[in-house]
Amino acid sequence: MTYKSGKFYFSHDYDESEISSLLVVAHVLNETIIDLPILPELADRLDPDLMYSSISGTAAIEGNPITSDDARKISQGQNLNEYTQKHKQEILNLIEAYRFLNDHGAADKPVILSEDFIKKLHYTITKDVYDEHNIPGQYRNGKVFVGDKAHGGIYTPPKILKDIKKLMHVFVTWINSDELIATDPFIRGALCHYYLCLIHPFWDGNGRTARLLEATILQTANIRYAPQKLSNYYYSSVDDYYIAFSKSIDLKKSATPFIRFVLNAAVESLTLIKGEIISFIRRFALRDYYLHMKQQKQITQRQFDLLNLLLDHPFDFTLKSLFSDLPFSILYQSVSVQTARRDLKKLKTMNFLSLDKTGLYTLNHRALG
């Protein structure tokens, strides 16, 4: 019971019939990804790609237009004048926050969240970004409105500092309780995300703080890559994100709609990550196989070079493309049309290339099965 805002419910109840199958799929996908061989070359590219993509996604939900590529450039010290200083500072803060979280907690031990930790994270996210009311790392004392009529209505969180302090104390006690620690990390992460947004303890930055806390819970539970990928799903489905939040508010004692939304996000994110890893492994295996075939004199150096070009630049092409389009034209500049035609016929016969009815060739990424 709050002092000014009536009853506030913390509940981990949810409708198992709507959640259980999604939960199983999410864990199967995660276990599959854990078992896949992640080569150092892929890990070196995948980790920063996911981080900058996640930073861009979580910032975009709050109206920041900076892309993941430009977030990377900003982290490298480039001054992109097409963006406001506020937007650039938000990105710099998120970069620092993500690095802070990556150093926090072991991967085999559930994270314990404290108010000091949450305040420190909020401070990192909002420092040096002007806001009329927000003080980085400090709870608000005043009335705010969340949402809009188009996404399920406007919600008014508890408004006085005394209530927020009380609720945040109960929140960290509850989210760190034995019962919640034993709860599935996808569920615990979603509940942490939802209830922090429901309390809305800060003037600004609540959503970014909640999403990063959720990511922390998942990554310390050995959920691979999805914690960073979720923000992109939330941004691409931002209307559903807010609607799920509003529907859960209406239920009061169950956050089932929001949990279901988060699990859908996790399943889609993990599916995309699995596909990317498998695609990389296929390319790696094909490159090695092409080299073997060249060493066995089954293909020529030029045919070997063509196949590797297609691995690096995957798009459809025609016989004419070999002479008119870069980078093929460099490889075939001294070759006759008849020789080029023989190359394509041979590689198609060996199942390295596919040919459709319109005359377009495509690299067959499943040549090895």
Topology, pairings included?
Elements: H1 16-35, H2 40-61, H3 68-75, H4 85-102, H5 115-126, E1 146-148, E2 153-155, H6 161-175, H7 178-181, H8 185-199, H9 206-219, H10 226-236, H11 238-251, H12 256-295, H13 301-312, H14 321-324, H15 328-331, H16 337-349, E3 353-355, E4 361-363
Antiparallel strand pairs: 1-2, 3-4
In helices, the fraction of residues equals 55-70%
Strands, count: 4
**In the CATH hierarchy, what is the class of the largest domain?**
Mainly Alpha
CATH architecture descriptor of the largest domain = Orthogonal Bundle
SSE series: HHHHHEEHHHHHHHHHHHEE
Major β-sheet profile: 2 strands, antiparallel
The geometry reads as elongated
Q: What structural class do you assign from the helix and strand content? A: mainly alpha
Neighbour order of strands in the largest sheet:
1-2
Q: Would you tell me which CATH topology of the largest domain applies?
A: Fic-like fold
What Rg, in angstroms, do the CA atoms define? 25 Å
Unreliable parts: none
Distance linking N and C termini: 62 Å
- Name the CATH superfamily assignment of the largest domain: Fido-like domain
Strand fraction equals: under 5%
List the total number of helices.
16
Tally the structural domains.
2
Mean pLDDT score: 92
